[in-house]
Amino acid sequence: MIPVTVTPETAALGIALGLVFSLVCYLTTNLSPGGMITPGWLALTLVTDAGRAGLMIGVTALTFLATKLLQRQVILYGKRLFAAVVLCAVVLQTTVMFALQHEFPLLYSAQTLGFIVPGLIAYQLIRQPLAATAISTTAVTLATYVVLVAGLLLGALPAG
């Protein structure tokens, strides 16, 4: 798949679509699909560069495992748990970025939100059943992705 550049308007619409689908998912199933902004961001990442989405999934898994190990040593709950998970994701994503930026310089251009998203997903994986979170995140992301790609292919959304 050839990476596509999307305009800021299309990116905002992708995030908004993800929010709507996330809200519908939450209201109908009482499951958070990895956080409210996550599906929109993942769908945009799939549209622009699927490799980056795969990297985010890997960092999410590492964040989840690191947090589970940390919970064996430290009492984490509520806001402390959220802060620890997101901080762990940012540290891991930054480490991966420094390791890969020389070989893949365009992989991390303007990717700020991508440093937080793995933490949001890992946080929900810790709070909710693993399979339910993975399924809801995947379903809502794919729904957002399908609408975005359809809009781009039909010319209803501007591509950069």
From TrEMBL:
The chain crosses the membrane at residues 12-29, 41-69, 81-100, 106-126, 138-157. The keyword Ribosomal protein does not apply. GO terms for cellular component: membrane. InterPro entries: Capsule_biosynth_CapC. This is Capsule biosynthesis protein capC. It comes from the Bacteria. Keywords: Membrane, Transmembrane, Transmembrane helix.
